[in-house]
Structures are given as structure tokens and as C-alpha cells.
Amino acid sequence: MLESLRHIVQEVDTARSFKDALDTLVVSVKQTLNTDVCSVFLVDRDTRRFVFAATEGLNKEALGKVTLAHNEGLVGQVGLKSEPVNLEDATLHESFHFIPEIGEEPFHAFLGVPVIHHRRLLGVLVVQQTQSRRFDENEEAFMVTLSAQLAGLIANAEATGETSHLGEVEYDHLDAEFVGIPGAPGFVIGTAVVIHPAANLDRVPDKKTEDITQELLLFDKALESVRRDIKRVSTQLSASLPKEEVALFDAYLHMLDDNALGDEIRVVIRKSQWAQGAVREVIQEHIGKFEKMKDSYLRERAADVRELGQRILAYLQDLRRHKTYYPNDTILVGEEITPSMMADVPQGLLKGIVSLRGSGNSHVAILARAMDVPTVMGAIDIPLYSVENHIIIVDGHYGHVYANPSEGRKKHFQKLRQNEEGFSFELEALKDLPAVTSDGYRIRLWANVGFSGDLVRSLDRGAEGIGLFRTEVPFMTSERFPTEEEQRRIYHEHIRAFSPRPVTMRTLDIGGDKTLSYFPIVEDNPFLGWRGIRVTLDHPEIFIVQARAMIKANAGLKGDLRIMLPMVSKISEVEEGKELVERAYREVKEEGFDVAAPLVGVMIEVPAAVYQARQLAKITDFLAVGSNDLTQYMLAVDRNNPRVADLYQDLHPAVICALREVSKAAHVEGKGVGICGELAGTAIGAILLVGMGYDVLSMNATSLPRVKWVLRQVSLRRARLMLSKVLRMHDTESIVSYMQNELLEAGLERVVARHTST
Ligand code: PEP
Ligand code: MG
């Protein structure tokens, strides 16, 4: 049954349209369970009624016409209970409701399972049989598993409007709305440029092409590249492999011949199918034939054909990527947008980002915030292929995306955008004014930097120092570890630009979701693995070179250099780190450089460090809270996972309590304390942190003027009062709603996010 399950999901996944997918599903399930009927009822989002959407065994004429109230009949029961209903004789059940139009009279056995996506009921999957019998445990488990796997597909079809007019393949639904997670604030209307996921033959959809010649050309190029690869590998291995094995490569080449697969694929392209779709179609057909063969040797050839198809597809996708056209209003849309994809967009054209994976605290979102590019993360239901080149709206405040927006929707967002632009313009006047509360309390607002453009932006927005230099960024954009001199130059540029103001450099913080292509770290649990200081202490040669580069970068400048250690979970890590920094300092001095000893601080990012904050403060010069990671580790919520994004709450009472403890601990030891997580750049976070006594708030430069605007209108007394109330609250929702009300009452509604729907 497991094999059938996999097969059905695969078939459904690769269907040409949603209607085809449902039709395939009901036929396959009926066959697998050997029942008389399989049907699908879908919930209409507007009317909340069940629509009879697909069937094998009942009257197909009634499809799309018959509907049931949300509590009507046995289907309604399944929905109300949100659990399977398994009946030996449905006609005896009190909720049984005979619907003559669909012709279910003669059926007795009934099994209905709900289809639920993110806690929402999307429909009910039903099997029925003439004879009275109870579906057994295995059959029920099969249906439940299938329904869980179908939920994503149905949610996706619903969002694109395919559920409302079953059968239409073309995607033209007006105002299709997709919900994700806010990544970077702001609104933008632009053109979706889809960066396709890595090759997966089974997931390539059909797509009509207008330019057959171009598709044929792409295909020929891809085919040639695959041939070249095979020939190269075959020559390389011919000395070490037995003759029969080498012959396999020849067989591959034959398969690609013009009178074999190659030509079949061309025929399909000539019928207006795009090249990737044609490859999938032909290859799947051959795989199907091989899989049916009795001879086990021939059956295994299916894997070879798949392998070839996969290779051609990879090249085709690569060719398309390189040919990507970026319009002036590019909105990058992709399964997982990466910093390098952002870098591929020519300067000035990137206006928005939508990533199906990732969350508000993924590094791409942090980068987008720094660059002021409205972003939605975790929009898992967006059909990538269907939105390509379509107009979409990105609402980065609420994490919503609208495809093919109506005129009304567009006007609404244009107005919101104008208001925002007006506000940003007003904020420019604050650039040279100090960050001081209305009762005269001075706060340091510093910037987080690392990505290109951050330095200029920070100076431009009036940052008084750098609170976090993510030094891993130059490592990530290089193809090998950068040399001491290469690093020194980058660090020097920053220290010089800010001198004599403080510049806080974090030692290399790789691991987790930050990887280096030339230093792969493969782990089951990367966020709990070899990260930050754990890596650099194991590689003192990397640590020392970096520390030397930082110290040398300050030569002759007398800048205020601070070095900060990430991901610390024990005292000895700090002791070892300090020793290495001291050694680097001695070496640089001995080499004759005129340098000052840097301050050394610790990032508080792990719960253990919160409990040892006093001891850590005692042996270092300052503490800086990394609230992004601290929230992740305190709440045991992956900061990158859209599924648990609503549980990732940096205003959770436990996090607030920890932040306050760290501030107290640092001050008891007479040391300064700052925070450089994203919380510092929010209005609510900034007020509470000031109330807690944080000396430095470090944030992306884009948020800085807003935070300054807020703090200049709030008194320290009021901030402390708000904090004392918040500390008595039990959940994030109460904290957020209380703080939002306070902001509204203080006349700060411009920084309170409002619902944007029209
Ligand atoms: C943090 O964890 O809060 C932090 C500032 O570091 P990063 O986001 O780079 O992990
Ligand atoms: Mg961190």
C-alpha cells in the first residue's frame, strides 16, 4: 500500500491541471482500495459549503453543481469533527443525507477523511462501497496519510483560484492571495521573476511556449552539454572500470542520439511544449515502459533514463537562469532565495522578494531588511511556475502576496506606499539629531553591517557606531578563505569610515544556515551543531588570521575596535577566545604596527549564557545580546522554518525576562550591554529595551531613523512603566496588543503596523 501511496502522490503532483490531479486521484484510490466509489468534496472559501469536486463511481454530471452546507450529511460530520468517519452502514447513521443528484443510494460502507492544511479544513476525501463493511485500520491509515499529502496541493489550487473553476489550466485568477511571513517591511508592486528550484523531473509542469525555436535551441545546447559530460567521465574512468561498465556510458550516448530520445523530445517541443516539459513527458513515458518490464535488468534501466532526464533538465534550468531577464520592477520569487540570487539582479532593479522557504529571521530576510527590499518569506503555497512574469504585490508588513491584483487592490497599495515614502522623507530630518528620550535620556543607536551598501547606508542614516559587523559575509562571497590582507582591507574601510566611533566586529559565525561553499559542514542539526565560536576555536589558524586582520585594520586610526565572540555556551570558550585575541595583538605589535588593544565582548545567544551572564561580564569588556538566536534557542523554534514561524516570538515573556536579566547582570559588573538582534530595530522592542537599561541598540540602518523617531517621543519613565506592566503578562499576544495600544495613545500610529487588506 505504501508503494501505491507514493505512486498516487507522484501522479497527482505531476498532473497537468488541478482538475486532472483530482480525477487521477479518485481513479487511483478507488482502484487501490478496491471500492466502488471515491469522491472529493472541497470547501468553498466564500460560502463555506462543500462542493462536489471529483468522483469515480458517482454521477459525474453533478460535479461542480451539487453543494452541501458545512454541517450537512456525513461529509459535514467529517468536517465538523475534523477526524475520519468510518461506518459499516452509512444509511443507518443519523446524519446520513440522501442526495439523489449524485446517485449514492446503493452504497453502505462509508469512510470520509478531512483534508486539513495549517489547521484549516479544505475538503473531505470519501470512499464508499455497496456492501456493508467497515474499512480496516490499514485502509483508514492510507486515506489519512494521502489526505495529509494532498492538503498542500489543494491549498495551492485554492490560492490560485483553480478550485473555483475546476478544469481551467490557465492561471488568471484575479487577486489570488498567499499568506507567508513578514520578511522585510514595505509594499511593492512589480513583476515576478521566478528563480526555479534545482532540477526535479517529476515536478516540471506543462507550459505552452510561444517561441519554439528558442526552446529547441536551449534543448540542443543542454543535450550537447550532457553528451560532453558523459564522454568526459567515460574517458576518465575507462582505465579503472571493467569494459562492461564503460559500455554503459556508450549506451547512454546512444539513448541521447538524434533518432532516439533526443528526437522524441524535439517532436514534443514542436507541439509548443517548453523544453523542460518535453523532457519530463518523454522521459516519464520511457521510465513507465521500463518499469513494466518483466526482466529485472531491463527494469533497472528506468533509473538510467531518469538519470539522463535529470541531467538534461539541470542544464536546461541553468541555461534559463543565465538568460534571466530582470525588469525594472523585479520581484524575485523562488523556492529558497539566497543572497547570491539577490546579487545576480543588476543594481537598482530588485524591488521585492518572495521566498517559499525560510522565515523572518533567516539571513536573507535580514539582508532584505538591511537593503530596504519588501520581502515575504515562507509563502509555501505560491505556485512558482504560474506566477512567472505576472504582476504581484508584496506586502512585507503582513507577509501577504497578491498575484494578478485588481485595480482596486493596486490603488490601495499605491496609496500605502506613498504614505510610507512621505514618512521616510520626514525621517531624513532626524539624521543628525541625537537619540534621546523626551525626558533627556541618551541612547546609542548603532548599525548592523556586513552586506554591500550597509556601510554607506549606516552613515547616511546617522548611525553612531557599528554594533555588529557580520564578518562571515565577505567569507561567503569569496571562493576560498580570504587572506589576512584581504580581510584587513575590508575591516579597515569600516573602521576608517566610523573612526573614532566604535566598530564591533564579530568573529566568523558560520554554521547553521550560513555556509561556505569551500568549507561544507553537513550535519543533521546544524543549528545545534558546529557553529560560531565552536568552529573557530577548532580552527585557531582561521581565528588568529581574522583577529590579526581586525587589529591591523585599526593601525594608525585609533578607532574604537571591539571584537565580539558568537554562540558562546561556556566560560572556557571565552577564555580561549580572549587568549587568541591577545596573542594576535602581541604578534601585530611585535611586527611594528601602531595599534591599540581591542575590547573583547561576548554575544549572549544561548540560554546557558543568560544564566552565566554575570560571570561572562566579569571576564570581558561588554555583552551584546543576539536576540535572533537567543529567541530560537530559548523557545526551541528554528528561526528558519516557516511552519513554526508563529511560535518564533522575540516578545515572548520568557525572552523578555531573559533580556532583562542580562542587562542587570552586565550593569552589576559595571559593563556596558547592547543588543544587535532584530528586536532592537522594532518600535516595541526598542522601547522595552530602553526601559531595561540597554546602553546600545544596534540594528539594520533602514530601521534606525524610525526607532530614533519613536524614542524621541517617549520618556524613559514611560518606557519603564510599560516594561513593568509587560513583565507581568503571560503571553506574547497580550504584550503586543498592550504595546500597540500604548503606541497609538502616544500618537505613534505610523509605526504600528495596520491591516492592509482593502
Ligand atoms: C542574533 O543572533 O541575534 C544575531 C545578531 O546574529 P545573527 O542574526 O547573525 O545570527
Ligand atoms: Mg546569531
Name its key features:
about 750 residues, alpha/beta, Beta-Lactamase, Glucose Oxidase, domain 1, Enzyme I, Chain A, domain 2, 4 domains, 8-stranded mixed sheet, 8-stranded parallel β-barrel, 27 helices, globular, disordered C terminus, binds phosphoenolpyruvate, binds magnesium ion
Write structural notes for this entry:
There is one protein chain. The chain is 45% helix and 16% strand. The protein is α/β, with parallel strands linked by helices and 758 residues long. The strands form three sheets. The chain has an eight-stranded mixed β-sheet with strand order 7-14-13-9-10-11-12-8. Strand 1 (37-43) and strand 2 (50-56) form a beta hairpin. Helix 5 (212-237) runs antiparallel to helix 7. The two termini are 47 Å apart. The model is unreliable at 167-171 and 754-758 (pLDDT under 50). Bound molecules: phosphoenolpyruvate and magnesium ion. The site of phosphoenolpyruvate has 11 residues, from strand 16 and helix 22. Phosphoenolpyruvate is lined by residues 366, 468, 470, 509, 605, 626-629, 676-677.
Percentage of residues in helical conformation: 40-55%
CATH architecture of the largest domain: 2-Layer Sandwich
Amount of beta strand: 15-25%
Total strands: the figure is 22
CATH top-level class of the largest domain: Alpha Beta
Helix and strand arrangement:
Blueprint: H1 2-13, H2 18-33, E1 37-43, E2 50-56, E3 67-68, H3 73-81, E4 85-87, E5 109-117, E6 120-129, H4 137-160, E7 176-179, E8 181-184, E9 187-195, H5 212-237, H6 243-255, H7 261-270, H8 275-291, H9 296-322, E10 330-334, H10 339-344, E11 350-355, H11 363-371, E12 375-377, H12 384-387, E13 391-395, E14 400-403, H13 407-427, E15 444-449, H14 454-460, E16 466-470, H15 472-476, H16 484-498, E17 502-506, H17 533-538, H18 540-553, E18 560-565, H19 571-590, E19 599-604, H20 607-611, H21 613-619, E20 622-625, H22 627-635, H23 653-668, E21 672-675, H24 683-692, E22 696-700, H25 704-711, H26 716-726, H27 732-745
Parallel strand pairs: 9-10, 10-11, 11-12, 15-16, 15-22, 16-17, 17-18, 18-19, 19-20, 20-21, 21-22
Antiparallel strand pairs: 1-2, 1-6, 2-3, 4-5, 5-6, 7-14, 8-12, 9-13, 13-14
Helix pairs in contact: 1-2, 1-4, 5-6, 5-7, 5-9, 7-8, 8-9, 16-18, 18-19, 21-23, 24-26
The structure holds phosphoenolpyruvate and magnesium ion (MG).
